[in-house]
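Hello, quick one for you while I still have it in my head. A protein chain has come my way and I'm curious about its shape. Can you walk me through what the tokens say about the fold? No rush at all, and the record is pasted right below.
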Amino acid sequence: MYLNVVKANVEKLVAILDEVSEITQGLVDDSHSSLNRSISMTEAVSIVTVLLILLMNVLLVMLVLKRILAPIQEITESSRQLSEGKLDFEIDVRSQDELGQLAGSLNTSDKDSETRKKGKVVCQVWSGRDFYHTYAFDLYPKI
């Protein structure tokens, strides 16, 4: 009799443990699928983030190149015109950096060359704080 009671209790305990095992397995499966979804979402967000960063870098490089190359191309074209003797150009000076100073000096050399062609010498005198006086003298004075 005692063995029958123990055997019945063991069978009940095994049945309860089987239920606990099934519930645990279900929770593990749910956690596993949730983890896989989280990994997939993280991968997708990472890929989109990397693509956006690459796009931003390309746009930034294009902007920087445009801001650097456009003035250089304009100065190169104006220098070519100056070397061909065409003096009717004006470079738009947009900055005071080295390129702006170069553009300004090309504009000035344009004016100086035009004045020299008309028989005048142009002289710039610095009078302080980036201010120049320009004087023109006749090369061929009228006698």
